[in-house]
Amino acid sequence: MKKRYFIRELALRDLEEIWLFTLSGWSLEQADAYTSSILARLNLLADNPSVGYYPLNNWFVATIVAI
Q1: pLDDT-based confidence at residue 56 (cuts at 50, 70, 90)
Q2: Number of domains present in the structure of the chain
Q3: Do residues 64 and 43 touch, judged by C-beta distance below 8 A?
Q4: How far apart are CA 41 and CA 16, in angstroms?
Q5: Is residue 30 part of a domain?
Q6: Which Pfam families does this UniProt record tie to the protein (predicted)?
């Protein structure tokens, strides 16, 4: 079952800034590729939450929270 997640407004603005910065410095194709890659990783983490955890001195640290 696919898990759902939401992206906060501030994070959406950050994603838009990444896209605009990449567009101005590289190309439309690269800007689309970067944002698509970020969204694909969010989907991966939502579907496989254990991928986003890593051990740190016998503690597990969450790098993203899926709901």
Answers
A1: low
A2: 1
A3: no
A4: 16
A5: yes
A6: ParE_toxin
Contact 21, 1 (CB under 8 A): no
Q: Tell me how many degrees the CA angle 38-2-53 measures, rounded to the nearest 5.
A: 60
E strand spans, the chain? 53-56, 59-62
Tens of pLDDT, residues 2-27 = 668 889 999 999 999 999 999 999 99
**Domain around 15:** 7-47
Count other C-beta atoms under 10 Å from residue 45's C-beta: 20
Q: Which amino acid is at 44?
A: L
Task: Specify burial of residue 27 (Cβ count, 10 A radius: 0-12, 13-18, 19+).
Answer: exposed
- Burial class of 12 by CB neighbour count within 10 A (0 to 12, 13 to 18, 19+): exposed
Asked, for residue 53, whether it belongs to a domain, the answer is no
